[in-house]
Amino acid sequence: MRQPPTPLPERIRPRDLAGFIGQNHLVGVGKPLYRVLQGRTIPSMIFWGPPGVGKTTLARMIAAVANKPFYNLSAVSAGKAELRQIVETVRAPGKTANAQMALFDAPDQDRPPEGVILFLDEIHRFNKAQQDFLLPYVEDGTIILIGATTENPSFEVISALLSRMQVFTLNPLTQDEIKRIIARGSAALDLEIEQDAGDFLANYANGDARAALNLLENAARLYSESRIAVEHLRETLQSKHLRYDKTGEEHYNTISAFIKSMRASDVDAALYYLARMVDSGEDPKFIARRMVIFASEDIGMADSSALTLANEVFRAVETIGLPECQFNLAHGVVYLACARKNRAAGDAYFTALDDVKERGNLPIPLHIRNAPTQLMKELGYGDGYRAYTDESMLPEAIKGKRYYPQERC
After folding, report:
1. What proportions of the chain, in percent to the nearest 5, are helix, strand and coil?
2. With the CA atoms of 277, 282, 285 and 291 taken in that order, what torsion angle do they form, in degrees rounded to the nearest 10?
3. 130-166 pLDDT per residue, tens
4. Quick one: which of 15, 23, 172, 342 has the fewest CB in 10 Å?
5. What pLDDT does 105 receive?
6. Residue range 260-280, pLDDT digits in tens
7. What's CA 326's distance to the chain center, in Å?
8. Where are the alpha helices (DSSP H) in 303-392?
9. What pLDDT shows up at residue 204?
10. DSSP secondary structure string, 260-320?
11. CA 134 and chain centroid, separation
12. pTM of the model as a whole
C-alpha cells in the first residue's frame, strides 16, 4: 500500500537549535532549555503554549541529546495500557515496546538501563486517574515526562504531578518568525510565494506555524503552481478539502466573540458561538471555565448567584461530559447572558492592586493587628480595636481611599 506523503510541517521540522525559530526566552544562549540541551540533565517538564509554536519539536530535540529511548503518545488516544507497556519495557530491558510508540530503538548496551523519555501530547486530556498512574514512575525516574498542553496546567494537571515538573511557557510566534518558517516551507515545496501572499499567510497563522504551513501545502496541491499568490490561498481556504485547525485562530476569535456576546446580553449570538465551539471539538471544560470567570468579572455583584450557577455548570460538564453536558452549557449561557452586569468588584480589586504594586507593604494600623503574645499587646497591637466602626481600616498613607462604591455595601 502506498504511504501518504509526509506533511510539510513534519518534513521541515528542525533537528537541532540551529534550525529552531522562536521561543528565544527559552532556547537563547544561557536560557533554561538551552541549558537543558547543552547539559543533558533532563527534568520532567510541561510545555504550555498555543498550537504550532514548537512544543513537539523541542521534545524531540531533548530526546535526541539525552541518549535515552523516546516514546511519543497522544493523551487523546492513549491510556493506562500504553503507559503500563512502557513501564514494563523499562523495567524488563529485554522486552521490546510497541513499535508505533517508540520513535527510537531500544537502548544500546552502553546506555543507562533506567529511565525513558515519554512525550505526552495534550496532557490536559488525561483524567485524574491516568495522571495518578504516572506519578510514581515520574517520581522514581522510571519516566522522564514531557507534557505538552494548550491549557493552563494549573487547572488541568494534578498538583502532585505538577509539583514534580518544570513548566515552560511558549509564546505565539511573531509574524517575522512565521515568515521565516514559510520561506523554509516554500523552499521545501520548490515554489515561490509572492510577498503579499506571505503577509497573508503570516497574518492567517496568528502565531501558529503549523496552520501557515498546512495552508501553503494545500494551496500548492490544489493549484499545482510554481508561484503562490494571495488568491490561491483565499480560494484554498474556501475549499471543502481543507481541514481547519480548530485550536488556531478560530479558537481565539470564537471564544472572544462568545464572551463579548454574553457581555452585551445577546443571548442568540452567545448560543451560536457556543454551538460553534462545541461542534468544532472545543473542550467543554474550557468553555465552562470561561463562564465561571465571566460570572465574577462581568456580572459580579449585580447577581451573585451567577457565580454559583457557573460553578455548577462546570461541575456538571466535568462529571457528565459530552454530548449531554450541552444542555448544561446552554442553560448557563442563557442565564449569564440575560443577567445584569456589574464589573465594580473586579475593577475595585485591580485598583487596590495598583496601590499594592506602587506603594509596597504599607504598615498595617496597630489597632487591627493580631496580638497573640503579651509583648505585642504591650506594643499596642490590637489596642482600641472596635468591630463595628466607620473608621477606615486602611494603612495611614491611603486612609479613607475608596476603591469600591460605598453605596453598594
Report:
1. 55, 10, 40
2. -30
3. 999 999 999 988 999 999 998 889 888 999 999 999 9
4. 15
5. 37
6. 999 999 999 999 999 988 887
7. 23
8. 305-320, 325-338, 344-359, 374-378
9. 85
10. HHHHTT-HHHHHHHHHHHHHTT--HHHHHHHHHHHIIIIIGGG-THHHHHHHHHHHHHHHH
11. 20
12. 0.59
Nearest to 204 by CA among 253, 171, 263: 253
241's grid cell = 478539502
CB neighbours of residue 359 within 10 Å: 11
| Structural contact between residues 222 and 239, judged by C-beta atoms closer than 8 angstroms | yes
Peptide bond into 43 cis (omega under 30): no
48 CB-near residues (< 8 Å, 6+ apart): 149, 150, 151, 152, 153, 167, 168, 169, 170
Contacts of 254 (CB under 8 A, 6+ apart): 273, 276, 277, 280, 282
For residue 352, give the C-alpha cell: 487596590
Residues paired with 166 in a beta bridge:
45
Is the distance from CB of 295 to CB of 301 less than 8 angstroms?
no
